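Supplementary notes for students who missed Thursday's class. We covered one full example, reproduced here. Read the sequence, then the structure, then the short commentary at the end.
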Amino acid sequence: MASEDIAGQYTRGIRAFRSGDYETAVEYLSEAVEYNESDHRAWNALGTACAKAGRYADANLCFENAITLAPDNPVYQKNRKTNTKHLKTLPLKIDESPQSILDRPPFDRIPFDLIPLKRKYVIAGAVGIVIILIIAILTLTGVLFHASPESKGPPILLSANLSGSSVILTNEGGPDIQAVSSFSWKINDKTIGTGEPGDPGTLAVTPGSTARAPLSDLTDTNLSEGMRIIAIAHYKDGNTVLALSKTLPPPAPDLLPAQPAMMTPVPTPTLPPDVPRFNKGEVVIDTETGTWWLVTIPPENGTYTLAHTARLPDGSFTSLNTTITTVNVKTFDKTGRSIGTQGVGGTPAGLSSLTPPPATAIPTLHPEPVYTEGNLISTGPGGNTVIAILGYDPATDQYQVDDLTKYYTGEWGYRSDNIPEWYIRPVLEKQFPHRINRITISDIGIGADSSPPRTQPKFTVGDIISPDTAGLENLMVILSYNPDTDQYETDAIRNANYGGWIREGKPMLGKRAFIERDYPVRLRTVDLDKVERL
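Structure (token representation):
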């Protein structure tokens, strides 16, 4: 059968499936995956046809191969999950176990010998074999008298082994290695590495390179049953190929990282019956809801009088001015735990502004925040103070913010330093009720010497620049620009008596933002080689 006909089997299989002829669909799609074992669409379609034909075990293996080639495809995951409900246990060969089936290469899992073929395909196959034998006999003499070409081997050569307390993936090259743009790999379905160059867990395309996965990073997977390693090669043309499928034995127990020791809880002191545990001014957390409460008056008549509270960034507590409520002493004593007293805090005061607030802070039910990340807000339409919303912590109902200043170009903006502040949501929204603009967080500069976002240097080498359009004095010439430090190298320059240019020969470095702000006018561009030096 011609390659075009074989490639068309996928289309024929889909047509047969849509017409309800599932057995014919299985035949066509089986030929499609035999022709191209890397076609995850064909594997998924073959699995669906097998499932419709009641061959759930075969379908499951097809879905596994589709997922191996395209692990992030949610349709394949859903098909396998649906098929599993119908899956029946198949008898194994005497020398096989379930694990040995899983250890086979993915494309060896489909039992093609169990897929029935029509008589015409059997006859066509037999004729093909005869033709192949005749061609082999005719070329045998040439093969005997000519040196056999060197075997090219697998297109991509990867190996994996356990070395010490880490799993090492090694790139051993291969004929197709130059066509590969990147690799991705998993151990027990856990993705290894970030894909960024320089990351120890990322495998480079250079032959001889390695990637490392410490066992300490795999504690959230089941290592006791071995380490299943799947590596995918991503080609420059957009195709993906399974480059390695291997299962390593479980690591020795002494190589596994020690589990953190469990902390022994401190028992709560037992109080006599009918004696309230909490007093006026105490902040108490309800351990069932994560809500913080302030005891507003001394307990009386078997009840507490409470008000909702929140924790400030300095570690102290404040009332949210919500409705006062009363609760039964016995009931509240069972779930409450004292945090501290109002204005003091149950933990050291003065939280670092770089550290997020605690995970339990205010009532879990509170209004949604008015502002989102990147909003620029002010006290009024013409307010002098503008702050940027850097984030929001729903657990504590607090915004992370910082003051923002415009650049000399009029663009927003830059922060004076990299230290943000925390504000309780209702307090911030009351003090800064006006949203005046929006900015991408990554565009916010740090320091007055930073440059406006996404702008290129205004000047080039040889530009003579001036603080004004007159250009009579205080002229500078651009000698170079360093993009890593965002600095210009400049020198003072003036007209020579004979009509040329002469510079002082005392180069100095200056931040691009300052140079372009103080010298906004380009007068002309000169050849530095023709400029004299004092």
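Commentary. The longest helix spans residues 119-144. The longest strand covers residues 291-300. If anything here is unclear, bring it to office hours.
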